[in-house]
C-alpha cells in the first residue's frame, strides 16, 4: 500500500529520532544525550524510542527504524534523521540542511565494509522515498545474495535495494564514522567493527543478543509464529511503539507496514 503524505505538518519541520530498546536505553545513555543536545541546538524535534523497554522482535527491532522513518514522513515532517543509539553526535556536527541537494531524498554513508551503514539515515520528504521504504519493508523476509547480506537486521536489505537508486546520496563517512579513529568526524558510531574497542560493551552486546534470542524463540514458539518478521508481528510491535509517541501517529488510521 502506498501511503500519502499529509498536508498538515507537525510544529517542527525536522525530527531526529533513535531507537533504544532491549537494554540499549541504559547501555548508551550518554550517546542518546548527545542526540538530544544536537536536536536542541538546531531547533529539531527529538525523540528516543524506549517503550516498550523489551521488544518482542529481539535484535530484529532494528526494522522499526524503517517503519518509523516512513511514519514520520507520512505524518508531515519535511526531514527526518535517524541515529543508532550507539552513535555519538559530536558538538561540531552541522545542521542536516547543509547536505541537502536537489533530487536527493535519502543520505547515508558507507561503513567499514565499504557498503551503506544504516546507523545514520537522513531523509527528505518524498513520495519516491515512501514507495521505496514500502518495498524495503516488504522485502524483510527475502533471502539476500551473500555480497549484500549482513547476517541479520535491515542493513543488508538497505544495501541490496539501494543499488542504482538515483535519489540516494552517499555522504562522507564523517557523518557515520565506523572505522577511522583519527577522523574529525561529525558522528562517531561504535557499532560492531573497528570502533567497538570496549570489551565491556562487547560482552554486554553478546549477553543482550543471546538473552533476546532465547526470549523471542520462547514467545513465538508459544504463539505458533514461524518468523519474527511476519507481517502481523511487525505490525503489532509497531503499534506497541507508536501508542507512546505522537510523532509517528497519523490523524488517519495508521498503516505503517507495507502489504
UniProtKB/TrEMBL annotation:
Gene3D superfamilies the UniProt entry points to: Spore Coat Polysaccharide Biosynthesis Protein SpsA, Chain A
InterPro entries documented for this protein: Nucleotide-diphossugar_trans (IPR029044)
Name of the protein this chain belongs to: Nucleotide-diphospho-sugar transferase domain-containing protein
Amino acid at each position: 500500500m502506498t501511503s500519502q503524505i499529509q498536508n498538515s505538518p507537525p510544529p517542527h519541520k525536522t525530527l531526529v529520532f533513535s531507537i533504544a530498546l532491549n537494554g540499549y536505553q541504559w547501555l548508551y545513555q550518554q550517546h542518546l544525550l548527545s542526540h538530544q543536545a544536537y536536536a536542541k541546538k538546531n531547533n529539531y524535534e527529538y525523540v528516543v524510542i524506549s517503550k516498550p523497554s523489551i521488544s518482542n522482535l529481539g535484535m530484529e527491532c532494528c526494522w522499526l527504524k524503517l517503519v518509523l522513518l516512513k511514519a514520520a514522513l507520512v505524518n508531515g515532517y519535511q526531514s527526518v534523521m535517524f541515529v543508532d543509539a550507539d552513535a555519538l553526535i559530536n558538538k561540531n556536527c552541522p545542521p542536516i540542511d547543509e547536505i541537502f541537494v536537489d533530487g536527493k531524498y535519502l543520505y547515508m554513508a558507507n561503513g567499514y565494509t565499504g557498503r551503506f551503514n544504516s546507523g545514520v539515515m537522513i531523509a527528505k520528504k518524498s513520495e519516491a522515498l515512501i514507495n521505496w521504504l514500502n518495498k524495503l519493508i516488504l522485502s524483510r523476509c527475502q533471502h539476500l545474495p551473500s555480497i549484500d547480506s549482513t547476517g541479520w537486521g535491515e542493513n543488508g536489505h538497505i544495501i541490496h535495494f539501494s543499488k542504482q537508486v538515483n535519489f540516494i546520496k552517499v555522504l562522507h563517512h564523517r557523518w557515520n564514522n565506523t572505522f577511522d579513529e583519527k577522523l574529525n568526524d561529525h558522528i562517531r558510531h561504535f557499532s560492531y567493527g573497528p570502533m567497538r574497542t570496549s570489551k565491556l560493551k562487547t560482552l554486554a552486546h553478546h549477553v543482550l543478543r543471546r538473552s533476546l534470542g532465547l526470549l523471542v524463540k520462547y514467545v513465538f514458539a508459544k504463539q505458533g509464529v514461524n518468523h519474527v518478521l511476519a507481517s502481523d508481528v511487525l505490525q503489532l510491535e509497531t503499534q506497541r511503539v507508536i501508542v507512546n509517541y505522537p510523532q509517528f501517529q497519523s490523524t488517519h488510521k495508521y498503516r505503517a507496514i507495507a502489504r
